[in-house]
Specification:
The protein is mainly beta. The chain has one helix and six strands, in the order αββββββ. The protein is globular.
C-alpha cells in the first residue's frame, strides 16, 4: 500500500463517485480495488444525506477522487 493511502486510513474522508454522488465515512480498509468505510453517509445531489448501515464497500473503479477534510 502506498504511503499516501496509509495516511488516509482511519480518517474521515469523502469519496466522490463517477455518478455525481459521494459517500462520507471513516476509511477503515483499503484492500486493493476496494475501499471500506464505516459510519458512512450517502450524499446525492438534491436529496437529504442518508446514513448507511454496516460497512460500506466501494469499488475503486467508481471513485473519481477522495477528499480528506
Amino acid at each position: 500500500m502506498g504511503a499516501f493511502r496509509k495516511v488516509l486510513l482511519l480518517r474521515r474522508v469523502v469519496v466522490n463517485l463517477d455518478d455525481g454522488s459521494s459517500i462520507e465515512g471513516v476509511l477503515y480498509r483499503d484492500p486493493g480495488n476496494l475501499l471500506v468505510l464505516k459510519n458512512a453517509i450517502y450524499h446525492e445531489p438534491g436529496a437529504e444525506p442518508a446514513p448507511l448501515d454496516g460497512d460500506t464497500v466501494i469499488d475503486r473503479a467508481r471513485v473519481l477522487f477522495v477528499q480528506a477534510p
